[in-house]
Write a structure and sequence with these properties.
Layout (H helix, E strand, L loop, with lengths): L8 H7 L4 H5 L3 E5 H10 L8 E2 L5 E2 L3 E5 L11 H14 L25 H11 L24 H10 L14 H9 L13 H18 L3 H17 L3 H9 L1
Antiparallel strand pairs: 1-4, 2-3
Helix pairs in contact: 1-9, 4-6, 7-9, 8-9
Length: about 250
């Protein structure tokens, strides 16, 4: 049983001055399109990562810029395209805690052809089925997450956010180790890591964001952004105890 910490005044103050449309949907990541698309071509994965250039035109080469809000529509119904754009946004974002690697969605144990992408497509389909992540059925691993080859919990959490709706009562939220660590620092009784996060624990995490958002009358995405911001500020602030220790040497 987890406990919801008290809503920090600093969180409320920061979130109340922010805009969901500008700060969340407009959150930009710089994408190295050549890095992504060369690897997609080499792996024969039928996806092209696209973004916008400096002039606003859609580009597939060079450097582009991807808004978080674009992740909701850029897939055009193709889940594999959506999840790769989510991964590209995470890798390109300067403030996000992520592994800078190419997620290879192929199941190399399957014969060459479409079957090598069958597993990840099946996992992405599982995320769309009601009640989505809450249902622990077939094609799941022991933690309840769908078995999506090449993709860990962080891009999967952003994917389920992207395919969700702003009208959802409890929309899945982005899972970031920085936000998770800050939440633990603020009194969340558990101390999980992203890599060990079960679906049940992930839903508990989303419930905390929802509860704080309800109390502050703000969006849970802004609460998550504040947690990341607060964690980064704390990490970059010199510890007075360390100064005292050095002075004592």
């Amino acid at each position: 049983m987890t406990t919801t910490p008290a809503l920090p005044e600093a969180c409320l103050a920061w979130c109340s001055t922010r805009s969901y449309e500008y700060d969340v949907l407009g959150d930009l990541a710089e994408i190295d399109l050549d890095w992504w698309n060369s690897r997609l071509t080499s792996a024969r994965i039928p996806v092209r990562v696209r973004a916008r250039g400096q002039d606003g035109d859609v580009v597939e080469t060079g450097t582009g810029f991807l808004r978080r809000g674009d992740l909701q529509t850029i897939g055009s119904g193709c889940d594999l395209t959506t999840v790769y754009h989510c991964a590209a946004w995470l890798v390109g974002h300067r403030d996000r805690d992520r592994a800078r690697r190419f997620p290879d969605a192929r199941d190399l144990e399957e014969p060459a052809g479409d079957r090598r992408l069958h597993g990840v497509r099946q996992a992405l389909d599982e995320c769309r089925r009601a009640p989505a992540l809450i249902d622990v059925g077939p094609h799941r691993d022991w933690s309840g997450w769908p078995r999506a080859t090449g993709f860990g919990r962080v891009p999967m959490s952003l994917y389920v956010w992207a395919i969700g709706s702003e009208n959802m009562l409890h929309r899945p939220q982005l899972l970031d180790q920085q936000a998770l660590s800050e939440l633990v620092h603020l009194g969340w009784v558990d101390n999980p890591s992203v890599s060990a996060m079960t679906v049940r624990r992930y839903l508990d995490y989303c419930e905390v964001l929802d509860e704080w958002a309800r109390l502050g009358r703000v969006r849970p995405e802004l609460v998550e952004m504040w947690l990341v911001r607060s964690w980064r500020i704390r990490r970059e602030t010199p510890s007075p105890f360390l100064d005292e220790f050095r002075d004592a040497l």
